[in-house]
Write a structure and sequence with these properties.
30% strand; 10 strands; two-stranded antiparallel ribbon; 6-stranded mixed sheet; 188 residues; alpha+beta; globular
Length: 188
């Protein structure tokens, strides 16, 4: 918390991208831009890593030609002064299409965060993604073994035994099992 009267300096997406390009930040800095502020990225535990890999496999198998999956790469959200690096996102085209500019809302069909210890922060990011132009945001909620689906229509919570529809360009592409995203086995 800043002392009273001090105003933080807000950073735009373009300013942040320029700082990254100039090498101002090192790999040890582990930062991302959220709502104009530089935020430290959280360290990921084993359960988070396992679930991220499960998500990657399930979603990649379902993607149609002309779409690919990015893992922990920046998404450009200029309307929200944000450049988060979500666990996964589905992007139009090929990886090499984004050599000069990170994908933004017209290019991204879905963002996925796996949440183990950062659920409140990941839920708060729903507004950043949706108001930034991303059509769908999923949180794989590991403690509750659910999938939270956020769209302009609202939030839906799907149980482990449910299916979720993957949409690309507003078209249903596949039905995926929520259980396939989760790490480990259900405990009674």
């Amino acid at each position: 918390m800043l002392p009273k009267g001090l105003v933080p300096y807000r950073v735009s997406v373009d300013q942040y991208a320029a700082m990254v390009a100039r090498g101002i930040f090192t790999k040890q800095d582990r930062l991302e831009l959220i709502e104009g502020m530089l935020v430290r990225k959280m360290t990921k535990g084993r359960r988070h890593s396992r679930a991220s890999e499960n998500c990657r496999r399930a979603i990649e198998r379902a993607l149609p030609e002309g779409w690919h999956l990015e893992v922990e790469k920046p998404v450009r959200l200029p309307l929200r002064s944000s450049m988060p690096e979500p666990d996964l996102f589905v992007a139009r085209g090929e990886v090499d299409d984004y050599e000069d500019l990170d994908p933004g809302p017209p290019d991204v069909a879905l963002v996925v965060e796996v949440s183990d210890t950062t659920l409140a922060a990941d839920r708060a990011l729903a507004a950043t993604y949706l108001n930034g132009g991303i059509p769908s945001y999923w949180i794989v909620n590991l403690p509750e073994r659910t999938l939270e689906v956020y769209t302009a229509a609202g939030r839906e919570i799907l149980a482990e035994d449910a299916d979720v529809t993957l949409f690309v360009d507003d078209q249903p592409i596949a039905r995926l099992r929520v259980a396939d995203f989760l790490a480990g086995r259900k405990t009674e």
